[in-house]
Each structure stands twice: as C-alpha cells, then as structure tokens.
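Worked example (supplementary).
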Amino acid sequence: MERYVEQLLGDIACATEDVDVPYAFQECSIHDWIPDEEENRSAPRRMLEEWRRIRQARLPPDDRLTDEQLHRILDALKSMLDAYNWSFVLQIQVPERVQYQAIRDNFNQEAVVKQWHMGFFKLCRPGTPHGKCALRKFCQCKFYAELFANFEDDDLTPEEERARALEIEVDHLQKKYGRDWKKYYPYHLDPEYDDENGNPSDYGVGKESDVDDDDWWKH
Ligand SMILES: [Zn+2]
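After joint prediction of all chains, the assembly is encoded as:
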C-alpha cells in the first residue's frame, strides 16, 4: 500500500500545482468585482474529478490506510482543494479518519470556479439528511442549521446580522489563509469602512463614476 500512497501523493501534488483557472485575487482587475451571490450564479462549474484529474476511485477506503498514511493523503487533498479555492473547512473538531471519509464520499461534486469569493467543498451529499452523511455526528449542516435556528431566536437587527456575518467570514479567512488573512479582508461587511452615506465598501468599483460626477463643471 505504501508504494500506492506515494504515487497518489505525487499525483495530488501535481494537480495542486497545475491550477488552470485565474482564480487568484491579484490577477483580476478590481473593476470586475461582483458580489458573492452573483458569482455563485454566473461562475463556471466543473466536476471535481474532471477539474483535478484525481478520480474518487483512486482514494483508498480508509480501512486500508494506517493513521499516518491517511494523515498524509488528507493533508495533500486539503492543500489541493485550497489551491482550487474550493476549501474543505470544518467548524468543529473532527477526527481525521472521519474527515477523510467525508472527502472521499463526496469527492466528485460540482465545484464553482470562483475568482472573487471563497468557495467551499460541500460536506454533505445533496439530499442526505443532516447527521446521516459521511461526517455522521460531526455533520456540519446540522451544526449550521442549529446555529441559524439560534440566530432567528435572537431576533437580530440588520447591524447585528452584519456583525455576525463579518465574524463568520473573518473566522473562515483566518482558517484558510493563516497569517495572510488580512489581504482578503471583507471590507463590505465592516461598518468602519462604510462610505460617508453609510453604504458598504464597494472596493473602489464605483469610484470612477464619482470622479466624473464631481468634475462635470470643469468641462
Ligand atoms: Zn452532513
């Protein structure tokens, strides 16, 4: 098995380096920026297997792997998913064996090829009841459903909702980018960066037309 694991790790490493989409923030002009909902609608979609050329069938069942082998494959798969901006992010502590089962179980899913916003590996297969997916009692959808049920109980004001959205986004960014997370700071969620009219930051997208408006009398 060890030889097979080595070969698989090599192929995953190649797929990680071979990112074929201009997803990286710095490669795009800020003027092309679009909100997350719009990107979810308009961005291209690809099946993971075909995008990374790593087939689900190549991932050994977890009971064939030692803890150490499983750890190396899991690490490699997570780095690969990060490179493709389709990150495997968990909100709670989950044993590595269960994490691996969850990735393997739902590996060939449709990914959104996003440039501006973070994309997340779907943890539960569509149509699987909460708590019955490969994550079992660690099911994250169940966690979110309970979290949002609590939000509703709280009867949040729009300001509080925004503050909570900021908190969740910052938490994701810190997990994903570590020390570099501030490069991806979600200014649009932070009231500190609202403009003088109280509108959320648009990352400079509307700036050009503002300048034109101010200068009209010069012409
Ligand atoms: Zn689940």
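Two points are worth noting when inspecting this output. The chain has a mean pLDDT of 82. Residues 123-124, 130, 133, 135, 139, 141 surround zinc ion (CB under 6 Å).
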